[in-house]
Design a protein that fits this description.
The structure holds two protein chains of two kinds. Chain A is mostly beta strands. Chain A has six helices and 40 strands. Chain A has a single domain, classed as Maltoporin, Chain A. Classes of the chains: A mainly beta, B alpha/beta. The interface between A and B is large, with 79 and 62 residues.
């Protein structure tokens, strides 16, 4: 909450350590008897379907490099059934949505350890660096992760790469909108292990496409540092450990990085509300669509009511500073008789110091995770039994713009010990593989919860297989602004939450892996009961003060979908992929806060020859039923000129091209363009909207926030 | 995620059994594939190569034992007169970075790029677990004669050449 001062931060220490320790490591290659083929040999549209009983799509390191992704969000976006949704035009909360379910139902893990929760999932997914990653595994559906039952939509797991040889990499990029990026990665194998250090520095300016002075793409300054340690034999355990450090400042709304001045500016009108599509008739403010004036409103010559804006730069700005430290340690040991013991630990501390349109909010979240499991064959059945314990708390304090102190508004402590058992067996000469699991959790608020799961894999032939899965997951809802950060402008939260959110999921996937082609088709059904809702527009019946009501929907949210992708290799150097998805949604009006498309189509071409490695991909997003998703019937939305918002969004294409050219063994050039066709939502409709009473919000989303962006860079493999 | 780890482990075990079943099936018929050449853009069908004892080796550049055995296999193919077919399970760029020029005599070494999703091909050749390096020796009629997961040595080659060459 206090203005930031320059100081020596943990991340600086981390960077110094990385380079100080590097010369100590021995460049000795690891000797292994075999390597399991996990990563995809080629990047392609549909992430690879890994050969496991649970449908798991993998994005390989090569594919991450091709897409020029710097963070987890950028790496997983634009795959069938997987997308990244932005939920706020002036702070750019981004979620990973699986099967088009809300992002809070996606559990992110690092090396199998779930260490992201309510606070860190709001902005934190932009802060997960992917240097030194072997692959990213995505499993869609409730219960796909035995150790993370809260993954109602599925899980995303980042798998660290254990380096086999010494690596020293430096990459620098620059582009439009102040885009600057510096990556460093160092790997040093030594006898019996390896050490890695990674650094990612990212800078991006805010973008104001429609010229009203309010940005739609939030600027940021982000530094990510990380260390990895791999020990092949530490007392019989194969260990992998990670330490990650995050330092980010992001600011949206008013342009510029003079955050101190922005926060201090809380009166006057520095914006032009008449700019852009359906801008107001006056630069001083916006039309009140309902026509009911309040004190200070102006009547225009045509009789319409204008609400003048007087909140200064700060009144339309959100500035968030984040510090995060997380550590993960996973150990596995082979025991006699084919048994395996696994121990895993995780810890994260996440601080968010933020300014929300005049309100100050500081949150600190701690998480611990510990797990012990034993896998043992019993005859033809392989049994796994384990325990895990998850701890998560949130402590916040702040003050409203009028100076009212708000302490502990959304505090909570969740403690969840759990026990689980899983059995696997192959039948019919191994053509059928079955896997059943059951876990029981004892949540300190919601009590005992049982989550079953059954998976089946049928091999039609060596090339084709079918997977069936049915499962249940649960999630303890949190009152952090994962749903609505309007809660920060209220004085208390009234809780009417008696049950956890429960998801039932069924899915089927068919896959074919031929010599020249690959096909994956999946069908899924998801039903979420006790869907949690936050209403920050309520008032205390006695005092009249603004309060938030935290409640649950009386009807389930049901999302059904089918997606498919087909890849064909034209030549040794050229591969093309066509993908599509279709989803349908059933929900009570207003329950799903953000619009989603029913259809998407994905095209992708990969070219790899003569030193060039080029990826071109295009995504067509079908119309979204804005009227239904944004519940116009009960809460109509208007443009700043008082005209109604679109009932349906237009369909649009977004095409990205990225290329790398290997000049020699050491140097590569990078050149790319994002959003080639320059499609921007602001050309059709602003992200800003007002209700009939003239209150504004920044959450009218259906299209890209950033237009065409060209970038270039150089990579040195030293 | 534990479920995934579990399944990897389980898969390794079950794939031993499954691999045996696949091997039995593979023994009975000629194995085939159509894959692109590392040099050039043409595709090569295995069955269109002249009948000859063939060692098919699956590898990746980030697999130390794979990289260690490749020069030995190339040399042995030339010296002992069998055909070596290497299948790279990685991107064309990664393969060409490792092999700017394909080593060995083109008559004894055919270098190919694996499919974008190699699971089907590996299973067809009796490798259900997906572990590499993996080598399969085929008789002149294309049927599977011997296979091995892990590095192979001169003794293994010599022993199986004698067995598969008839």
């Amino acid at each position: 909450m206090s203005p930031r001062t320059k100081r020596f931060k943990p991340i600086h220490l981390a960077i110094l350590m990385a380079y100080a320790l590097a010369p100590l490591a021995h460049a000795e290659e690891r000797q292994l008897s075999t390597v399991e083929v996990k990563g995809a040999p080629q990047g392609k549209l549909q992430a690879k379907l890994r050969d496991e009983i649970i449908k798991t799509e993998s994005i390989s390191e090569a594919d991450i490099r091709k897409t020029n992704a710097a963070t987890l969000n950028e790496a997983v976006d634009n795959n069938p059934g997987v997308s990244v949704q932005t939920e706020c035009s002036i702070c750019n909360v981004r979620n990973i949505t699986l099967n088009n379910l809300p992002g809070r139902f996606t559990t992110v893990m690092i090396d199998g350890v779930p260490i992201f929760s309510s606070v860190s999932s709001a902005y934190g997914l932009d802060m997960i660096g992917i240097n030194g990653v072997e692959r990213i595994d995505i499993s869609r559906g409730a219960g796909t992760s035995l150790i993370a039952p809260e993954a109602l939509a599925g899980s995303v797991n980042i798998v660290s790469r254990r380096p086999a040889k010494a690596e020293s990499l430096v990459e620098a990029q620059a582009g439009q909108y102040g885009y600057r990026r510096l990556d460093g990665f160092l790997a040093r194998p030594f006898a019996g292990g390896a050490f890695t250090a990674a650094l990612n520095v990212n800078h991006h300016d805010s973008i104001d496409s429609n010229g009203n002075g309010v940005g739609e793409y939030t600027g940021y300054e982000r530094t990510l540092g990380g260390f990895g340690l791999f020990l092949d034999d530490a007392g019989g355990f194969k260990l992998r450990g990670r330490l990650d450090l995050v330092d980010e400042s992001r600011g949206g709304g008013a342009l510029g990085k003079d955050y101190g001045n922005i926060k201090a500016s809380m009166s006057g009108n520095p914006f032009d509300w008449s700019a852009g599509k359906n801008g107001s008739p006056s630069s001083a403010g916006w039309v009140v669509p309902g026509g009911v004036a309040q004190a200070g409103d102006i009547t225009l010559a045509d009789g319409r009511i204008l609400r003048p804006y007087d909140g200064g730069r700060g009144g339309m700005s959100e500035i968030i500073e984040t510090r995060r430290q997380q550590a993960i340690l996973v150990g596995e040991r082979k025991l006699a008789g084919g048994a395996r013991l696994k121990l895993a630990f995780g810890y994260a501390n996440h601080d968010q110091d933020s300014f929300y349109e005049g309100d100050y909010y500081f949150a600190r979240q701690n998480q611990h995770y510990s797990e012990a499991s034993l896998q043992n064959p019993f005859g033809a059945t392989l049994l796994t039994a384990g325990l895990n314990y998850r701890y998560e708390d949130l402590e916040s304090h702040g003050r409203l713009a009028d100076g009212t102190a708000v302490n502990g508004l959304d505090n909570y402590i969740y403690k969840t010990p759990g026990v689980y058992v899983q059995a696997y067996r192959a039948l019919f000469e191994d053509r059928l593989e079955l896997n059943g699991s059951l876990r029981y959790d004892r949540h300190n608020v919601f009590g005992g919860i049982t989550s079953p799961r059954v998976n089946a894999l049928w091999h039609h032939s060596a090339e084709t297989s079918s997977r069936f899965a049915i499962g249940r997951g649960f999630r303890a809802p949190t009152s952090f602004f994962e749903q609505d950060h309007g809660i920060l402008a209220t004085t208390r939260i009234e809780r009417h939450i008696d049950n956890p959110e429960i998801s039932d999921n069924a899915s089927y996937a068919f896959s074919h892996a031929g010599d020249r082609d690959a096909l994956v088709v999946s069908v899924n059904y998801n039903q979420i009961k006790n869907y949690a809702l936050l209403d920050s527009g309520a008032t205390d019946p006695v005092s009249g003060a603004p309060i938030t009501v935290f409640t649950q929907s009386s009807e389930p949210v049901i999302v059904k979908g089918i997606d498919a992708s087909y890849t064909w290799r034209f030549t040794s150097n050229l591969e093309g992929t066509l993908g599509a998805e279709k989803f349908s949604y059933q929900f009570r009006p207003g329950d799903l806060s953000f619009a989603r498309p029913e259809e998407r189509v994905y095209l992708r071409l990969d070219y790899d020859a003569g030193g060039w490695d080029i990826l071109a991909r295009a995504t067509w997003t079908g119309p979204m039923d804005l009227k239904r998703f944004y519940d116009y019937a009960n809460n109509p939305r208007y443009n700043l000129d008082g005209t109604p918002k679109l009932d349906k969004s237009p369909s649009y294409w977004v095409m990205d091209i990225s290329g790398r050219y290997k000049v020699n063994k050491t140097a590569s050039l990078v050149l790319g363009v994002n959003n080639l066709f320059d499609f921007r939502q602001t050309d059709r409709e602003d992200f800003l909207w007002v209700d009939s009473a003239g209150n504004y919000d920044v959450t009218h989303f259906w299209g890209p926030t950033r237009g065409r962006q060209v970038y270039a860079g150089v990579r040195l493999d030293l | 995620m534990f479920a995934l780890i579990f399944n990897v482990k389980v898969a390794k075990r079950s794939h031993i059994i499954l691999g045996a079943a696949l091997l039995f099936a593979a023994n009975a018929q000629a194995l085939d594939f159509e894959l692109p050449l590392v040099s050039g853009s043409q595709f090569q069908r295995l069955s269109e190569l002249p009948p000859r004892v063939t060692l098919v080796n699956f590898w990746r550049a980030d697999c130390p034992p794979c990289v260690a055995e490749l020069p030995l296999l190339v040399e042995a193919a030339s010296r002992l007169g069998f055909r070596l077919v290497t299948v790279a399970l990685q991107t064309p760029g990664e393969t060409r970075a490792h092999w700017p020029r394909v080593p060995g005599d083109p008559a004894s070494h055919v270098a190919l790029l694996g499919p974008s999703d190699p699971r089907g091909l590996l299973r067809r050749f009796g490798n259900a677990s997906g572990a590499i390096p993996y080598s399969a020796m085929l008789r002149p009629d294309g049927s599977l004669c011997a296979r091995r997961t892990g590095e192979i040595g001169q003794d293994w080659i010599a022993e199986n050449l004698a067995k598969c060459g008839t």
